[in-house]
Amino acid sequence: MTPKAPAALAVALALAVGGVVPATAQAPIRIGASLSLTGTYAKLGKNQHEGYQICEKELNAKGGLLGRKVQFVVYDDQSMPATAVRLYEKLITEDKVDGVMGPYSSPVTEASVNVTEKYKKVMVAPLAATTSIFKRPPGQKRNYVFMVISPAEVYLEGLLDTGVKRGLKTVAVVNEDTLFSKAAASGAEEVAKKKGLQVVFKEAYPKGNTDFSALLTKVKAANPDIVAAATYFDDAVALTRQMKELAVNPKMFGVTVGGDLPEFYDTLKQNAEYIYGATQWEHVLPYPGNQEFFDSYKKEFNHEPSYHSAAGYAGCLIYAEGVKRANSLDADRVREQLLKLEMRTPFGDYKVDQDGFQVAHKMVTFQWQKEKKVIVWPEDLAKGKPLFPTPPWTSR
Amino acid sequence: MTRLLVPLMLVVLAALTVYPIVGSGYGVRSVQQVFMWITLAGSWNLISGLTGYVSFGHVAFFGAGAYAGALLVASAGWPWPLAALAGGAAAVLLAVVIGYPCLRLKGPYFAIAMLGLNEVLRALVSYFEGITGGGNGLSLPTLDASVPIYYVMGVLALVVTGLSWLIVTSRFGLRLMTIREDELAAEAMGIDTFHHKLGAFLLSAAGPGVAGALMARDQGYIEPISVFPLAITVTMIVMALFGGKGTVFGPVIGAVVLFVAQEIVWARYPYVHPLLFGAIIVAVVLLMPRGVLGLLQQRYRMPRTI
C-alpha cells in the first residue's frame, strides 16, 4: 500500500458507513459569541452558552454544516456592553470567525450590534427582547440582526390578564432601570390601561440593587392587588425575600426573567410558592424536538435548561438553517433566507418581519405550585389553574 | 538614562502612529483603550497621586463627559471632535462645583464626596429620562470613526502625560507634593493650599471628560450603568498604584501592563480573572507600595521626575 492508501481506505469506509463525506474533511465553521459568563447576568448567560453547546454537538453529530464541522468560539464579556463590543471586534477581525451568534441581554446586544453591522455579519440575537434594537428610526436601519424571543413588552401580559379575569383592580409596576426591564414595565402599563387596571405605583431601581426596603415600603403603602416586577434573576430573588420580611401581601406577585430558573426555587425554597413568572419556553410545551432537547441537555449538564438555554439552542438552529438554505456563509445570502424562513423550533415558532423582528413566537405565564412551574396562561397552552389569591406570607 | 529614554519613546510613538494601517479592528480598538486608561490613570494621579486627596469618584467625570458628548452628537448634531471638547468642559465645570466646597476641607471629606457624586450623577441621568433616555440608554447614529478616535485618544493620553511631566517638574508640582506630605506645614510656608488643590483637581477632570465623550462616540451606545460604574474608578486607581503614584510614567506603565494582563486573562479564564486581578492588587500593595516605577527609582539611579 502507498502511504496515502490508509487514508483513502478510511474515506471509502466512512462513505460506505455514513453515506456522507466526513465533516472533518475541511476546516471547521467557527461561530463566535461573547457571553455574560461572569457579572450581573452570569447565570443566564451561562445557560445560553450551554444551549449553544448542545446545538454545536447536535449539528456535528448530524454531519456538521455545509459538510464542515461547527465550532463555537466564546469569550466572557462580564455582562458589560463595552467589553462585548471589543470582543465581537476581536472575534471578527482577529479570530476571523465565519459567523457570529448574539450575546446575552438587550443592552449588550444593542452595543454589540453596531460592530456586527459594521462588518456585515449576520447576528441571530436569541436573547435580545427589546423592540428598539430591531425597529429603528429611518436612516439608522439595521440589516443583519434577527430576533428569536418574544418582545419585552408582552412579558407581564399573562399576569395582568389572569388578575383582571379574577376581578383585580390595581397594580404596582417596579423594574430594573435597564433597556429590557423598562420595556417590559412600560408594556405592562399599556396592558393595564387597555384592560382597565389602575397603576397605583411605578418605580425603577438601578441595576445591581440589593436593598429594596424603601421601594417595598412605598409599594405596601399603595396596597396594590398585583405587584408586577420586571426583573432579572438577582433582583427577583432579593425582591421576594424582602417582600416577605416587610410583609407585602398582594393578591398576585409576578416577575419576568429569573423567576423561571430552577435556581429561583432552590434559593427561595417554599417562599417561591405562588409566585408568577413569565417565560418564553417550558419543556412541557408541545414543540417538535423539545423533549429531546430537554433530555440531552439534562444529561449533558446535570441540571434543567431554562428558556435562555432553549432560546440559545433554537437561535443557533435558526442560523444553521439559514446557512443551509443559502448554501453559503455569505451574510447577504443568509440574511435573505432568514427573512423568509418560517420554522417551528423546540423553542417555538420563528418568523420575522422585514426588520428581523420576531412575529410568531408566543409567551407563557406560569405559577410556582409545589416545587413545580405550572403553566396557567394562555388558556390554549395552560396545564393547570392558578392558585388564587396568593395567601399572606404569615399563613403559608 | 534619559539619553536612552528619548529615542525609545520616539520609536514607540512612531510605531503607534502607523499601527492603524497594519492593525486589525480589534487591535486598533484595544490600543485605543490603552490610551483611554493612560488618560484616566494619569488624570487621577494629578489630584490623588500628587496632593494625596484620594478621589473615589473620578468615573463621574468620565460619565459626565460621555453623556455631554453623546447628547451634543445625538440631539444637537455636533461633530464628534467638538463634542469631545465639550465633554471635557462639562467635566471641568462639574469639578468646579464639587471641588470649590469640598477642597476647602481637609481630611477624608473629599474622598467621601467624590464617592457620592458618582451615585448622584447616575441617579440624575436615570431620572431625567426625557433628555438622557434614562435606563434605556442613548443610542448614537452609526458612524465608523475608530481610526480617527484612535488618534485623538492617543493625543489625549500624550497631553495628559506631558502635563504630568510639566507639573511634576514645576514649582506648582512641588507645592502640591508639599501638601501631600504635610498640609499644615505647607500652609505655614505660605502656600495657598486651597487654590493649588483646586487647580490640580480641575486639570484632573478634563482628561476623563474628553475620554468619556470619545468612548461614547466610538461605542455608539451608552447607558448609566456602563459609564458610571465604580469599577472604572477602581481600575484607574489600581493602575496608578501599580505603576507608581505621584510619578509621571507610573500611570502609563500601570495602564499598559494591567490592561494587557486583563485582556489576556479575560479571554482564557473567565471565572478566575477577578481573583487574579485581586491577587495582583494585594501583591502590589504589600510588596511594592511605591509601584513598579517607585521600586525602580529606589533600586537604580533614576531621576525622580519621571
Please summarize what this structure is:
Chain A is α/β, with parallel strands linked by helices. Chain A is built from 13 helices and 14 strands.
Outline the fold blueprint.
The complex is a heterodimer of chains A (396) and B (306).
Chain A: H1 5-18, E1 29-35, H2 42-61, E2 70-76, H3 81-93, E3 99-101, H4 106-118, E4 123-125, H5 131-134, E5 145-147, H6 157-165, E6 170-176, H7 179-195, E7 198-205, H8 213-222, E8 226-230, H9 233-245, E9 252-255, H10 262-268, E10 276-279, H11 290-301, H12 307-326, H13 331-340, E11 343-345, E12 348-350, E13 364-369, E14 372-377
Parallel strand pairs in A: 1-2, 1-3, 3-4, 4-5, 6-7, 6-8, 8-9, 9-10
Antiparallel strand pairs in A: 10-13, 11-12, 13-14
Helix pairs in contact in A: 2-12, 3-4, 6-7, 12-13
Chain B: H1 2-22, H2 25-51, H3 59-74, H4 80-102, H5 109-127, H6 129-132, E1 138-139, H7 146-168, H8 171-181, H9 183-188, H10 193-219, E2 221-222, H11 224-227, H12 230-243, H13 250-268, H14 273-287, H15 291-299
Antiparallel strand pairs in B: 1-2
Helix pairs in contact in B: 2-7, 2-10, 2-12, 2-13, 3-4, 3-5, 3-10, 4-10, 7-10, 8-10, 12-13, 12-15
Q: Which structural class best describes the helix and strand composition of chain A?
A: alpha/beta
Total strand count of chain B, please?
A: 2
Largest sheet of chain A, described in full?
7 strands, mixed
Helix content of chain A: 40-55%
Written as H for each helix and E for each strand, in order along the chain, the element string of chain B is: HHHHHHEHHHHEHHHHH
- Note the overall shape of chain A: globular
Q: Which strand order spans the largest sheet of chain A, edge to edge or round the barrel?
A: 7-6-8-9-10-13-14
Structural class of chain B: mainly alpha
Binned strand content of chain A = 15-25%
| Cα-based radius of gyration of chain B, to the nearest Å | 19 Å
Biggest interface, chains and residues, is:
A-B, 37 and 33 residues
Q: Kindly report the average pLDDT value of chain A.
A: 91
CATH architecture of the largest domain in chain A: 3-Layer(aba) Sandwich
Poorly predicted runs of chain A are 1-5, 9-24
Please name the fourth-level CATH homologous superfamily of the largest domain in chain A: Response regulator
End-to-end gap of chain A: 78 Å
Number of domains of chain A: 2
